[in-house]
Design goal:
Length: 118
């Protein structure tokens, strides 16, 4: 994503959604500012494309690959879940606060030690 440059991050994200319009697409979203990417891009500017993907059975995987896992996963879930897509959090053990077309995967730093606070 960084090859597009900071000023073109939105276009890079949009390119991923348009170039791979069906199925699952995972996009590294913390190259510059993951909170900005989640609120402004995924939760606003690209919201219609993300929802359209969901209507077609696909999904977006937001990949914040850095930061403190408990903080990052919870905050990204808050922004991309019920705040951006009007999904109300529940007390269920499942991932009900995420719409079925948008997930978070912080994959390269997860260990059993990091999972316990989650």
């Amino acid at each position: 994503m960084t090859s597009w440059g900071k000023d073109n991050e939105l276009e890079a994200f949009k390119n991923m959604l348009e170039r791979f319009p069906n199925g699952l697409v995972a996009v590294v979203s913390d190259s510059y500012d993951v909170w900005h990417a989640c609120e402004k891009y995924w939760g606003n500017e690209l919201k219609d494309l993300v929802m359209k993907r969901g209507e077609n059975g696909g999904c977006l995987v937001v990949r914040p690959d850095s930061g403190d896992p408990p903080e990052v996963v919870v905050k990204v879930s808050d922004i991309c879940g019920h705040r951006s897509y009007s999904i109300e959090p529940t007390l269920s053990a499942t991932s009900d606060m995420w719409p079925l077309f948008c997930f978070c995967c912080l994959c390269n730093v997860i260990t059993l030690l990091f999972l316990s606070p989650l």
